[in-house]
Amino acid sequence: MKKKIRGSIARWVAANCLMLKILSPAGAQELLPPLDGTMLLSGNFGELRATHFHSGVDMKTGGVEGLPVRCVQDGIVSRVCVSPTGYGNALYIDHSDGTTTVYAHLQRFEPRVATRVREKQYTRESFRVDEPMLAENIRFRRGDTIGYSGNTGSSGGPHLHFEVRTTSTEHTLNPLRFYSIRDTRAPIPKHLYLYAVQDNGSVQRLRSCALKNTGTGRYSAGRHTVPAGKIGIGAFIIDHMNDSWNKLGVYRLTLTVGQDTLYHLSADSCAFHQACFINEVKDFECYKKRETVYRCFGHWQHEVLGVRMRNGGCIPLSQDSTVHALLTLADINGNRSTVALELRGAAPAPDTLPDGEILRYDLPHQLTHGPWSLRLPAGSLISSVRKTLASEPDTATGSEILMLARKDIPLLKKGTLVLRGRFSPRSVICEVTPEGERLPVATRHTSDSLCASIGYLNRYTVAEDTLAPTIDYLGKGPGRTLRFRIKDDCSGIASYRGEVNGQWCLFSYDPRTDLLQCLLSEPAFRRSARNEVRIIVEDKVNNQTEITKHITL
Q: Residue 215's CB: how many other CB atoms inside 10 A?
């Protein structure tokens, strides 16, 4: 364990040396804010999101689109993306100091960029593009308008998502190291959770601890008697900046026992490949109840940039002993809160899961149940869990439901689920929610089985998707657009194509509203003439629907 801790600290220092150089007071460059006016955030860096650590800051735009977005320092456009999901319209600009800035969810690009994007879309006959742009030599000066704020991609409302990255590694840096925001409000701890971490790697939540505000940012969780052994702490924390109601993530979190620091998190940098650890840092069950609980312990958190820990972050507690722990929370402006906690050790609790009944977190597993099999590589599990393999009839489809867990258990590495047998090309493996909803999983067909990569231990079944996507013609819309609604109720839409008078035409797609639309000014349309518009939509098991409409401009 000591070697692992020393190795993880060495990796942390090596991975962050460039970041620390860039962010040091002598080396940090002041960046121009990408939006005019007071910077208000609806999301900050490193927040614990559903599937990832937030890689930038979300800047509020007052609920409107179309605000000019400025280049924060001289640079060259290195990449452009257009996608119906994710970042939507996004622009990447490289700078001479070794950083890249990213501007996402844009409504539209500056004309030079927009022209090149449109050319690439027509060349590839695709609305979605993700293109390197350095060869185009499009340069912007500090303060130039590079585009306009919007609500594209997987955005929940108009805002600008802004990132600063180390160009060579693509590690994201906390943008608030380059800006000052008005924030005099300390993070607020709502309550604590206590966990028992067993020797076999299983984790059991023991209790919730109410907090008492003892004044000026100090809180007390009181005294608690818990089974002797390794005790983990989780903290439900919210933070606000001045003049904004949005809940933000904590910047720094430290757990100390006496003079001993067991856990330290600092949200200075993130790496995209570490998104899988999000459910190691947060309590997954609490997150589903809208509580953002930071776990100050874990088997794998030493792999996360910005985390340093000893003893897995756990508090060692002997029977009849008492320890005093202190949790310190801080935002990037240095506003702090502390939570004091006293723990007393009772008789040790027996392991809740005997070795023969568990899937250990640190081992690979190969499980078989009837025609189903599951392979989990080592390091897939956050903690050791009860082995569950059972089946029950699926009354909706007439097949059976495989139960891998009695509740959702997220995986750090995807497992491979295989169902042996012969199936029609329209068959798809589905995750079954507690409400009975069937969520299709990307399914591969072989000559004798169905295969899927799964991110959760849950309940699974197989269904046959015989229904083709639907296409509804909505007519002409605002801004001289032509609109269709496309939907698929099972495997999901895999592709679409729009043609006008036999030529490919640029249609944008928004899966949030199922809206497919194009401008009537696209070159394939003929003015004062009858135009034939053809839409073809295909789902993920190759069911296809086609519709043809005749439009006169």
A: 6
